[in-house]
Write a structure and sequence with these properties.
It contains 17 helices and 18 strands. By secondary structure, it is an alpha/beta fold. Helix 2 links the parallel strand 1 and strand 2.
């Protein structure tokens, strides 16, 4: 059958029978679960040059150098650097003209007798596409969601084989590679929340689009990248840090959008709960914001990302329809306060009981997630364009049956109105600006930040004529 999805044993066997592939497996933290598939499939002598598993921290440090965190991208890179250098040094003369070398490595924490936390790990593969070619590499971060240690180990082995198989045979089609990572697995068992491609095989790959692919293809509910376009994972950014998020379409980002964020950040920084710490600031775009009809225009997505990049913003792409899902997800990665910056018009969505599932506890359950970890809403006034009235956190017309709940949240500063707002930006709307850009009406340039004006004009973004 042409559409048959190979299982892990079949994939491992195909690699073992491929005389072109030869390399090292280095695994820490969950047994040698990936290498085991290659030995079990048969023919591993043609593929496996070496396997290593340095569990003891002192042994691991002696081989790969000291690490502050053993399950981290830094440790994974040290493993790949060390093992790849050894592989080439020892075998290039005897094998280098006929095989493409590779190193697969993982560093993982699974459930155990002493650790009852969610399993997660870093996996990487460094490989040559042809003998003596310069190496390329891929990193991924996975969350292992099974409750039993044995199930987590099994899932790790399967995704590791899928990962290596994709690197060898699908590297020319990264979207397809991503789509095969969960072959014979489900998102209930494994989540892939970060992927980073590098090296000559991926010279034309934009890792921002790969982050989008993870969310679009359902491997994760959210993925991130920096202003430089580098893929990052939650724990690398949020660990023990307060977080401020602004959700929007950023199509394009406007002076009004930026003022909402900056004023919220000012008030958040003054909060005694964060003691003067600088919060991690994220600009969140949901798939709903990005879709144009049934599809997402990748060029348009990159245009939005580029405008956020020139402002130095980290971008979060998510599939969270509701704010409380976002806040609940973030709370899994930091125990510090989480804040959302939004306009008062969004309060209607947050306090609409019909938008909450009974399985999550309805509105009260959702609010519990939203205000977890000392969560706060910083609310910028909005203009009601139909009535001309100003809506603030204090004047928001909560429905009669939840007025007491809303009053409680307001009085206890779970919801805070932004005090130092600019009334001159209240009429700015991004879709009006987009229309002006595409119509060649230069008045839009008064309504967006100067660095954004520059890149829109220089690159011809959003239908603007290049200048």
């Amino acid at each position: 059958m042409t559409n048959e999805i190979l299982n892990a044993n079949q994939k491992a066997l195909k690699i073992n029978l491929d005389a072109k592939r030869y390399g090292t497996f280095a695994e820490i933290g969950a047994g040698q679960e990936v290498a085991r598939w290659f030995f079990h499939a048969g023919g591993a002598a043609g593929t496996v040059a070496k396997t290593i598993s340095a569990y003891d921290m002192a042994v691991s440090d002696a081989v790969y150098g000291h690490a502050d965190r053993y399950v981290s991208r830094q440790r994974l890179r040290a493993m790949l650097d060390h093992e790849y250098a050894l592989l080439v040094e020892r075998l290039d003369k005897s094998h280098g003209d006929r095989v493409a070398f590779f190193v697969f490595a993982d560093t993982v924490a699974t459930r155990s007798f002493t650790r009852d936390e969610e399993g997660h790990g870093w996996l990487g593969v460094r490989f040559q596409t042809e003998p003596r070619a310069a190496f390329s590499e891929i990193f991924i971060h996975v969350r292992m969601l099974d409750n039993e240690n044995a199930r987590q180990q099994e899932a790790l082995g399967i995704i590791g084989v899928n990962f290596i198989y994709g690197a060898f045979y699908l590297f020319q089609n990264p979207e397809a590679l991503i789509g095969t990572l969960l072959d014979h697995l489900t998102w209930e068992r494994v989540e892939v929340d970060m992927i980073q491609f590098g090296g000559p095989a991926f010279a034309r790959v934009d890792n921002r689009l790969m982050a989008l692919q993870l969310v679009q293809q359902g491997l994760t509910e959210a993925a991130m990248f920096t202003a430089k376009g580098e893929a990052i994972q939650w724990s690398e950014v949020f660990y023990k840090k307060p977080v401020l998020v602004q959700r929007g379409s950023f199509h394009p980002i406007t002076n009004a959008t930026l003022d909402v964020l900056e004023r919220a950040e000012e008030q958040f920084a003054q909060s005694p709960r964060i003691q003067g710490e600088e919060p991690v600031v994220l600009m969140e775009m949901t798939l709903r914001h990005l879709r144009m009809g049934e599809f997402i225009n990748e060029k348009d997505f990159l245009a939005r990302a580029d405008t956020l990049s020139v402002l130095g913003k980290t971008v979060l792409i998510s599939n969270f329809l509701r704010f409380h899902r976002l806040a609940g997800y973030l709370a899994g990665y930091t125990n510090r306060p989480i804040a959302l910056a939004l306009g008062a018009s969004k309060l209607k969505e947050i306090f609409d009981e019909s938008l909450y599932n009974n399985s999550e506890g309805g509105l009260l359950g959702g609010l519990g997630q939203l205000f977890k970890n000392s969560g706060r809403l910083y609310v910028y006034p909005s203009l009601d364009f139909e009535t001309g009235e100003l809506v603030t956190a204090e004047t928001f017309p909560a429905a009669p049956q939840i007025k007491h709940i809303y009053a409680h949240l307001l009085e206890n500063h779970f919801i805070e109105g932004i005090r130092n707002f600019n009334k001159d930006v209240l009429r700015i709307r991004s879709h009006d600006i987009l229309d002006q850009i595409q119509a060649g009406d230069a008045s839009w340039q008064k309504l967006v930040p100067p660095p954004v004006i520059e890149i829109i004009r220089r690159e011809g973004l959003f239908g603007c004529a290049k200048s």
